């Protein structure tokens, strides 16, 4: 095929494309944003590919994986553009470690866990902490508590439940029991209600995020600085439920909720299990009717639900919401338009509103 002669002095468009710098830097954060193919080797890669940098004259940048595939080239074996990115495979490794902790009858040492996922103990510890927000030890402790709750509701005796949960000393457990359960195990067992709440904690750009669901739908989305505090908060809200760690399917739901945090304007059609008084439910429904990028005052909401005098009660219902973002109480401001408080911190509210405006 005849092509017009190229101007040999002009740089190839790839060399001047701002994305090319990400390839040279092997920038992991660019993974998923674009791909590149190399004509001389007949492969396509993700931006972070560790292989030797190609001559930009031979490189084409692609906006989509489909576009890269359409070259007819093969996927690079080193960076595996068709598989999980390094970050996603780290997440998979950490998820595996979490499952090991959850299913182990005994407490696993850091060395055991690191060995099981084929990482060095120090690297594993760092990766676990950066992925989950807690250390493996704290995660195991939180899980033992969840198992204990579970066991107390099922097992024959309190002592059996304590041993089954991996607490090896009855005495030590009783010392901590009131902190952990908010009541003695015997009382807890008597009052245990047969409901399972599944939860997982992840990190998002606003800090730690906890998502919890009943069989009917999402019951809580909590935001905070500290993953352990979120887990405690959930326990306080559902003192009678069995709290169980989410499985891989649940992690996908959590990933979608994290996506909602990053781009609240996109919305997310999540099944919610909304629990509150009839009045709270009316307020929360009115909140869900506020489109992204808009704000209303407490007075506006009071009028919308046909209770114009109940401004204070509306503010109370907004504060009592515990499904952050999906019930967008961040879209309610003071009557004078000023930013009012937010259960998860006014800075997070400001940032969510900024994202909805900016998008
Ligand atoms: Zn590659």
UniProtKB/TrEMBL annotation:
A Pfam family the protein falls into: DNA_binding_1
EC number of this enzyme: 2.1.1.-
Catalytic activity: a 4-O-methyl-thymidine in DNA + L-cysteinyl-[protein] = a thymidine in DNA + S-methyl-L-cysteinyl-[protein]; a 6-O-methyl-2'-deoxyguanosine in DNA + L-cysteinyl-[protein] = S-methyl-L-cysteinyl-[protein] + a 2'-deoxyguanosine in DNA
Co-factor(s): Zn(2+)
Class of this enzyme: transferase
UniProt cross-references to InterPro entries, sorted A to Z: Ada-like_dom_sf, Ada_DNA_repair_Zn-bd, Bifunct_regulatory_prot_Ada, Homeodomain-like_sf, HTH_AraC, HTH_AraC-typ_CS, MethylDNA_cys_MeTrfase_AS, MethylDNA_cys_MeTrfase_DNA-bd
Lineage per the UniProt record: Bacteria, Pseudomonadati, Pseudomonadota, Alphaproteobacteria, Sphingomonadales
Protein name in the entry: Bifunctional DNA-binding transcriptional regulator/O6-methylguanine-DNA methyltransferase Ada
Residue stretches making up the HTH araC/xylS-type domain: 95-191
Gene Ontology MF annotations: DNA binding; methyltransferase activity
Gene3D superfamilies: DNA Methylphosphotriester Repair Domain, Homeodomain-like, Methylated DNA-protein cysteine methyltransferase domain, Winged helix-like DNA-binding domain superfamily/Winged helix DNA-binding domain
GO process annotations (BP): methylation
């Amino acid at each position: 095929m005849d092509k017009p002669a190229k101007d040999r002095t002009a740089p190839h468009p790839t060399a001047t494309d701002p994305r090319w710098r990400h390839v040279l830097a092997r920038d992991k954060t660019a993974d998923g944003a674009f791909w590149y193919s190399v004509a001389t080797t007949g492969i396509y890669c993700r931006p972070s590919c560790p292989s030797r940098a190609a001559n930009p004259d031979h490189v084409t940048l692609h906006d989509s994986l489909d576009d890269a595939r359409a070259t007819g080239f093969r996927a690079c074996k080193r960076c595996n553009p068709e598989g999980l990115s390094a970050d996603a495979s780290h997440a998979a490794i950490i998820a595996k470690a979490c499952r090991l902790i959850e299913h182990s009858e005994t407490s696993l040492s850091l060395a055991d866990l690191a060995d099981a996922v084929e990482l060095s103990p120090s690297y594993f510890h760092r990766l676990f902490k950066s992925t989950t927000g807690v250390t493996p030890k704290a995660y195991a402790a939180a899980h033992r508590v969840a198992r204990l709750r579970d066991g107390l509701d099922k097992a024959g005796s309190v002592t059996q439940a304590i041993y089954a949960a991996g607490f090896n000393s009855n005495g030590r457990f009783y010392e901590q029991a009131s902190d952990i359960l908010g009541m003695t195990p015997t009382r807890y067992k008597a009052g245990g209600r047969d409901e399972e709440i599944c939860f997982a904690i992840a990190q998002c750009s606003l800090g730690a995020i906890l998502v919890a669901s009943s069989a009917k739908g999402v019951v809580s989305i909590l935001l905070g600085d500290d993953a352990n505090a979120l887990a405690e908060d959930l326990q306080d809200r559902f003192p009678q439920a069995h709290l169980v760690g989410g499985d891989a399917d649940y992690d996908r739901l959590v990933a979608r909720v994290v996506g909602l945090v990053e781009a609240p304007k996109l919305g997310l059609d999540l099944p919610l299990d909304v629990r509150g008084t009839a009045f709270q439910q009316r307020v929360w429904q009115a909140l869900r009717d506020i489109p992204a990028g808009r704000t209303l005052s407490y007075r506006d909401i009071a009028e919308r639900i046909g209770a114009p005098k109940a401004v204070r009660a509306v503010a109370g219902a907004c504060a009592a919401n515990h499904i952050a973002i999906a019930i967008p109480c961040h879209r309610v401001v003071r009557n004078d338009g000023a930013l009012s408080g937010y259960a998860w911190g006014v800075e997070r509210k400001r940032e969510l509103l900024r994202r909805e405006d900016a998008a």
